[in-house]
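This section describes the prediction task in plain terms. A model, or a person checking by hand, is given the sequence of a single protein chain and must write out its three-dimensional structure as a string of tokens. No templates, partner chains or ligands are provided. The sample shown here is typical of the held-out split.
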Amino acid sequence: MKIIYFVIFLTLISCGKSTPQNQAKKNQTPKEDTINKYWDSICKTETKNAEKDIKQNKLTYFHYLGMVVQYRSNKEMNKLLSNYNIGVGSAVSYCTVPGELQNCYAYKMRQEIDKRYGKKFIDSLRTIAEKQYVENNLNKIYAFEECDTISRYPNDKSYKDFFKNYKNDFFKIAKYPEDFEFRKEKDKYSWISADFILHKNGKVTDIDVELRFQNKKNYKYSAYYTKKIKEFILETKWIPAKSMGITVNSKVPLTIHFK
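The expected answer:
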């Protein structure tokens, strides 16, 4: 296992998937060839260590760090895994080394876990862990992205509708003044954004508004549009968010662009 921790130490800067081995070997310099041989040696050692631990019935599941999906429910996941006598560890993936030569211990362990419990075993545990996380954090204010993809705006037929319908409805109550200066430069935008806390009971609090006009003459309407967006937010019957099907408090961001 010392080799694994050494690998993790060397790979603090992570990135996505690396190229396949046959691609990586093309046009390799002597230096690159030496590096790959080094990692190949490490991979073989890690694989042997994993096989040895597997024979002793020591299984380990690895959480991947870096640009791989980060889960909020690792604590809950670890507890579920312990029920099966599966330990946990951390691994890092990065692009400077062929994928098949890194984290070989973790890869071998995952193969064995899938073999013993089925390929859907880890995913099913993760689903349970995610739901347990929400149940354990019912008073948390969840980020917009943490919630289920259901619209929080009333009468929307789909999640995608949320990103357009509220904008159209806002301008029904916030008309453009006669002398409003519309956008002239295509690469510059005028906008108003607001975020607020939408509580489980539908109550709205903590409205925060930010506004920017491309044409400075429009700033005389700042108070008007700030008032209108607050009215719009407070008068709308928002639908409380859900995470893993459980109603939660959430932060809702709105952004509306002016013409």
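For orientation: DSSP finds eight helices and seven strands in the chain.
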